[in-house]
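Before the break, one more example. Copy the sequence into your notebook; we will annotate it together after we see the structure.
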Amino acid sequence: MRRFAFLIGLIFCLPLVTVGQQQEHASLNGFFGNSATAEQDWEQKFRAIPSPDNMKQYMQLLAARPHHVGSPYDKQNSEWLLGQFKKWGWDAHIETFQVLFPTPKERLVELVVPTHFVAKLEEPTVPGDPTSSQYAEQLPTYNAYSADGDVTAPLVYVNYGVPEDYEQLDRMGISVKGAIVIARYGHSWRGIKPKLAAQHGAIGCLIYSDPRDDGYYEGDVFPKGPYRPDEGVQRGSVMEMEIYPGDPLTPDVGATANAKRLTLKEAKTIEPIPVQPISYGDALPLLKALHGPVAPDGWRGALPITYHIGPGPAKVHLKLAFNWDLKPVRDVIAKLPGAVYPNEWVIRGNHYDAWVNGAQDPISGQVSLLEEARSMGELYKQGWRPKRTIIYCAWDGEEPALLGSTEWVEEHINELNTNAVAYVNSDSNGRGYLRAEGSHTLESLVNDVAKDVQDPEKNISVWQRLRFNRIAHAPNATDREKVESQKNLIIGDLGSGSDYSAFIDHAGVASIDYGFGGESGGGIYHSIYDDYYWYSHFGDPTEEYGRALAQMTGTTVMRLADADVVPFDFTGLDDALGRYMSELKKLAKTEGDEINEQNKELEEGVLAATSDPTKTYVPPVSQSPEPNLDFSAMDSAIANIRQSTQRYRAAFTKAEQTDASSASASFEAVNRALMQTERDLLSSEGLPGRPWYRNELYAPGIFTGYGVKTIPGVREAIEQKNWQQATEQIAIVAGVLQKEADAINAAASALESAAH
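Here is what the structure looks like once it is written out:
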């Protein structure tokens, strides 16, 4: 699902040594006594097994035909995946949920004034691409969870259709009320565009791919190059997943066959207006028919026209109707039992459903997962036994709304609360640089693993290559020095857009999301051209980066599963909280200064208008009261987290001398305490207006969709200038942070006792 931005947030500044040198005599976080040496031996054996040739074969099979939710080939793929896991020695089964998945039965977009034009709404076959002609099995171009509708209205161009674009329209005196808007893809998740359009009074929404963003402006188009051709269309969901993901009819509970369901009218996450994606070939006649003001510089794409905003004279007829059916999603779940801590689970996932053939999204990640599973099966035959139970998940239904993973988490929430150690995710993959985002308790682990995985093209570790790239592309000397001075990498913060969401946002399970990319190019996202032909020419033709992803992700899983003590490190969390607090205080000051300036201008205007001393002066009404936010409770809790972090590090250093084989029972109490630290980042209330999201540190933004908001309850209240809510959220977050400090202290105490 997720379209990755491969401007990576990982920063390395460590001694420049080879992978082999790093491995020799190195200690591993979470491993005591001689256990680190044994772990390194098994990991080296593991990383030697994954085969690019196998991954090519898997991709050719899994992406051979369209396999969207409920399709025959999706079912066939699930059964093949199940058979592979079983063949490799895993205990595997399919878990099925029944979910709402609308498909189109009528689609019409036509320009009716000033001329007549009917949009094709189709993607043509490309000569030489053997799967682009599978029309009978392809889903049409559409946006899932759009409302049904039949509307005719003036057209208004709204750029990317994000909040700042509507602010610009307000300044220009242009309203979209009663109009159909046309927005270009990019700068936010697609579902935000119709949501904002409806909030501003629009009655329909078209979303098109401008060639400036992923078409001929960026490079040669498919099949000559990797970018989107003029009739390529980006399908995708527009469900309001920032409220809750998963089945719209069964929030908070698994969508089993007998689950209690909302009615369609009761569902809160279906868009209220009709929405249809179109190609830039179909968009050109519509945009060309617009008059009105010329669009600002930043609004102008790469089509050969002068971009006007409208409204008028262009008038568009949009008619959409959908089949609102329940369809099965089949999650393939495979387990290797833990030999020491069988009730501690390390979970790994990647989805296998696609909008069409989906070679890049998601099969490029799924083939790596499969090679990890095969390789671990080989190690198991050789005598390796993970301490913790490993669960591999091939998710179905991710593309429409994170369906398979969300329903599985909701169904198993009590077990996850007790047993889940961490979740490791991947999605799309390609050539280039490592990308990692996730819980900052895993930051040190990511750093350690990245040292041990070799970049297949540069023959240095993936963290070294990334560090060089960050230094080379630093915008200024200050930022470059910052990269060079930092000891460990900084991983990105998780928003949403892939299967980790339910784990981190709802269940409080430490999560990490991996991928490689940045050098493949591409504009075939969610189109019929995302197939094996495209991927084997432009994505990762040799599958060497698929192998690197398997090595990176599989090593992470093994280290989490084999560690004597769960390898969490709270230093990264402590540092992240410091950054978040600085950002919040700066944001509050910026918003306050803006309000003060607006109020000053308003007051000066009123004073000028009331210069007659005989008249009573009436003070102007401010748009919002000046903020006076008190962050002291959060500052105090973060200081306590810093102290507890230091205590845990001291306890860990002492425990490194412990004989792990004689202390496993004591370590179990430590592990339980460590697992609780991630749960304690949740609040029972959840975020304002969307209680499904319970993590007080990370969440997708209410107006960004995929994009993360850190400390979201406070941050979004400040952005909305809701100072009362900001004050309430500060108190809630301070309580959560203090609970986190107590949980880290509890883990330190347990470790002190175990190492006594």
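The first helix runs from residue 19 to 23. The radius of gyration is 27 Å. Try to locate both features in your own notes.
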